[in-house]
Write a structure and sequence with these properties.
CATH superfamily of the largest domain: endopeptidase domain like (from Nostoc punctiforme)
Radius of gyration: 20 Å
Number of domains: 3
Distance between the termini: 35 Å
Largest sheet: 6 strands, antiparallel
Structural class: mainly beta
CATH class of the largest domain: Alpha Beta
CATH architecture of the largest domain: Alpha-Beta Complex
Helix content: 10-25%
Order of helices and strands: EEEEEEEHEEEEEEEHEEHEEEEEE
Oligomer: single chain
Amino acid sequence: MKAVVNAPICPLMSQPRHDCELADEALFGMVVEVLEHTTPGYWKVRTHYRYEGYAPTTCLAIGTQAALEWEALPKKVVLHKNTCDVMTAPQVQSWPRVTLPMGAVVAVTDPPEVDPETQEPTGWQLVSLPDGSDGYVRSSWLDTYYNRPIDLPEGELRQRLGGTALLYARTHYRWGGKTPLGIDCSGLVSMSYLLNGIVIWRDASIKEGFPIHAIDCKDIQPGDLMFFPGHVALYIGDGRYVHSTGKAGSDGVVVNSLDPKAPDYRADLPEKLTGVGSYF
């Protein structure tokens, strides 16, 4: 059985209860596979990137046929704002139907709105939601939804991965999180890849069956991943890397340097580097 995430952020808990470790977050519009229903109020689900957890039933629109129909619709992803209001009408004075985080997915079946008199774009886009309702968002806040790796030359894709990670700058650290409302280290790098259509393992490790493979540390290039014990970062070039850290004083997404002379050098990490992984 399948379901569609119908809440802005659906917590995936490590156990079917709220007072346990947050394993992951599934985002609005994602389709998940329902595995079992063992506890009232929770379903065990598997995401399309093969991560599992227990989701509150209130966050899901359950039904295989509806999920398949949703999957077939053309999509856009919220990308250019940390959050995005879906309005009941194409005007700023209308009521927000739901507020979505960056990374959420909506269906787009109509062209952008135009003024009926001037035929000029209004800046609004009609979108459909998994529960069958619709609403309006600023069209400039949406971007291409990639369900397969984006087709770019290697150099451009490497830079794009780093640029995507930097969209989360100043986000605070949240264990299991992966939105601008809170994100952890593997959430940051996995979302940076996922928003470019590349599915990598969501944890801070290289896992067989996913496209990241180990390379020699001296061969690191922008877009590659740096692994430390229980931690992962994304290299952006010139000896610098972006990561989400719970370390006091950083408390979220920051850029640090591998150069001991740099003001943002973090001395405790380079000596703990266990390996480098690359998609390329």
